Amino acid sequence: MPQPNQIGYAAMINSYGLNGMGLQSIELYYQMPKELINEATYICVLNACSHSGLVNETLSIFKTIEIETQRIYTTIIDCLSRALFFEEAQKLMEEFERLHIPALPMYPSATVLLANVDGSSGHIDKASDIKTQLYQSDTKKRIGLAWTVTNRQVYQFRAHDRSHPRSHEIKAELEKIANELIDHGHVFDATWNFVVNPHTSKIQVTKNLRVCGDCHRATKLIAAIRQCEIIVSDANRIHHFYTNGQCSCNDYF
């Protein structure tokens, strides 16, 4: 692109971020003409930093941002929460709430993430308080959906849904994979692809929500055990799980 515009720059910065190339996102961001930088640009570069574990760089960029929007705050809170800087994340949430009431319903994903981080770190009371506030705000939680293609047909799966006509086969495959993973210390929800193509070498899955830590760890193991590459496009980024048990995100997601 000879003369990139706002959309071109934002697309490239976001693409770097989705593929775990946070430093390249930052480099391109600083090369942008200042008059082209807008809210979308800030969100893309902050998100790229978040998913590469670049907390210091995130804070440095955030301090230079002159506009305050709920989406920008959501992104920086998300970054701090992922890096376990939950005290700082909580302060930013409280700061934004004071200035932009009511704010909690505006960033449920970051709120849930912060609550989960507090809970996993032993701060049960803090996690409970945050989830109580979210519940009282009447914010609706999105239903987890996933799509995959087998034999040129798209299949959709919903969390806790057993309506698929071959659900008994899926459950049987689940138990088979679970037994394999128990030997490695993990249990995982099975995938439809192994039912249709037991010896498949590549699987592609699309999710409407962010992949959770347990699923991420288990998918790495499944890719290694079954020697099958698994590509997962979730709400935040693309994960490429390789047959050596590693993920392209380097565990920043």
TrEMBL record:
GO terms for molecular function: RNA binding; zinc ion binding. Residues 178-253 form the DYW domain. Pfam families: DYW_deaminase (PF14432), PPR (PF01535). It comes from the Eukaryota. Signal peptide: none annotated. GO terms for biological process: RNA modification. InterPro entries: DYW_dom (IPR032867), PPR_At4g14850-like_plant (IPR046960), PPR_rpt (IPR002885), TPR-like_helical_dom_sf (IPR011990). This is DYW domain-containing protein. It comes from Rotaria socialis.
